[in-house]
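Example record for the data management plan.
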Amino acid sequence: MARLPRLYAPRIPQLAQARFAHPLAPADAPAPATALDRIRGWLAEEAGRAAAGEAGAVALHGWIVLPDRITLLATPGDEAALSRLMQALGRRMGSGLMRTRVYTGRYRNALLEPGRWVLPAMIWLESLPVSTRSARRRNGPGRRRRNTPGWALGARRDRLTRTGRRSRREPARP
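Corresponding structural encoding:
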């Protein structure tokens, strides 16, 4: 079956995800810090190019590298910017880290509505390690409910009962 043409949308935020052909680390071990630092450096270079206003750069809003995938929230500057970034990452990782094929296939991307869905996508990106069980949820004195993005979006405890259902409506205020 022939590949379908990719939808290119410059200056529109996108979520892009590519799965690694070989994980950075086994499932029960953390990813090596040196590999993560190198990937972070490469992504920081791209963020610097975008901040400098270079044509064709990709503005990176957030990214996460898990042992089995890389996920980016980015706004490409032109039609081919995001695919160039993913190819450059694959080439750098293939020559410097893995010495083999990097991705299992093509990267996948989804367009986001510019104003409305960028913040929820950032929250989803931040929670991805917990939802994929790559990290454990922290419940302790260092993590408070008020400091989470959900609190800022209005999911406060005072509106919910212990079962998670809405409490009875309060009388309307004059």
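Summary line stored alongside the record: The chain has a mean pLDDT of 79.
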